[in-house]
Design brief:
heterodimer, A: alpha/beta, 5 helices, B: mainly beta
Amino acid sequence: MRRLSLRLLFCIWTVLISGGLASTAAWGKTADEVVVISHPGLALNELDRDTLRAIFAMRLRTWPSGQGAEVYVLASDDPVHATFVKEWLSVYPHQLQLAWDRIVFSGTGQAPHRVRSQQDMIDTVATTPGAIGYIEREYLDERVQAIARD
Amino acid sequence: MSASKPLPGIRSVGCRLGLLAPSLLVPLLLVSTAQASPLDTFQVHGFLSQALVITDDNNMFGDSSDSGGSWDYTELGINASIRPTENLLLAAQALSRRAGEVDNGSVELDYGIVDWQMLSDRDRTFGIQVGRFKNPFGFYNQTRDVAFTRPSILLPQSIYFDRTRSLGLSADGVSLYHEERIDNGVIHAQLGVGQAQVDDDVEEVLGLDVLPGSFDADTSAVGQVRYEHDGGRMVFAVSAASVKADYDSPGAFPGDGKLDFQPWIFSAQYNAELWSLTAEYALRDVSLTGFDAFEDNENQGESWYVQYRRRFLDDWRWLVRYDSLVNDRDDRNGTDYEREGRGPAHSQYANDWTFGLQWQPHSRVMLAGEYHYVDGTAWLPVQDNPDPEDTERRWNMWLFQLSLRF
């Protein structure tokens, strides 16, 4: 009897654990390496995490040169977005979304520009001065500048 | 491939509606033609919420205790923003809010600011906002009417009370902000000086609405210092304000007087991947002085809540919260208040257990439901419950809400 209840407990435990893992995994297929890209005219080629956070949280509106920063993102439920946000900014997509909502609806800033696909992302970043975005490495080509982690 | 082909996939997270640029923006666009194209930075966003409120006793936002509840809680907002130059931001939001007898849905300017970022580099940002700005009170005040930024349908009423919401909502004046980016953290400081909004709700709650005079807002100040650690994993904030208003009495009764409202709010939040824990504590000094009709009245109210929120199945969240308010720390149970014949004791405190559920099937759609078990009526809108003797001490409330945004 005791054995049975132990087994039952173990079962419940397993279900709880695997449920937790499943919901974490559903966050996004493990995307290929995500690279941060900018317009080729941007006068810097590396950024530290704190600056990237400020740029993507829409709190830093200009580059050190004074040029306006144009921030491009994929849809919030896109796995590449989730990978970028977690790996490069070390925050969660829902936190970033809330930060944007708070800025947009309090008049203290603007929302980032959204693109539908990684192809749109690279095409736009390549042709928009001051633009920054991210893509999987396989989409990378010489029209944009890859930004290194400082 | 051609780099200059039109890119149909691009849009801002909201909408770019260049054609709908409000007339106030047009002159600015004309003077800044030297710019690449400021119109590219034009954005429009909006939100809409409709709630059903059901109570067993007492009324919240309309006749919620009647069978069928009250549909009298609607929030509708639309805003526009543009960056005519790199360091200038113009933003304005119109808000229509219907909330029982508290708000009638008339369209108001929620905020309207010119924001000039004088300094912006890797380590710090410094700027000034001129116009009507939202007060940085606690974690939620600046976007309190946007359901998507709230953890629950009703914000914790002990701190974000809706019955005298005009007092803390926004101010017309000047606000300075400074953001310092330190290693793995951000310190954000803001100080605003201007005229607060002191609307009829304040007179109604103070019981002065039956009298002939009215309040005129005086110069007020509000400030907040917030520290966000590790991209927002931990957030701490201290907010303080001093809101002043002068009561202008046309006759000798009740006489001219002054209202002084000084709240302090201490806020802390921990955010993990799947859950967050939030607590805020507030002390409020309220004084009414100088009136001929009654003695000077000064007291200190106290509010706090603890809230746990958890995400599950990707787009669901549940929440549990305990929220507590006392109007007067020297009379926590309201017994003195009742003995002096001023009203029922339970009108001087409120303890609220909240259980909430939110589902966001799409990034622009949210459905929410919640249940409140409340002991006390201290934040119950007097506008919806004109006779305090008719209120019940213990009451239950259910709310359901549909929210949209773009």
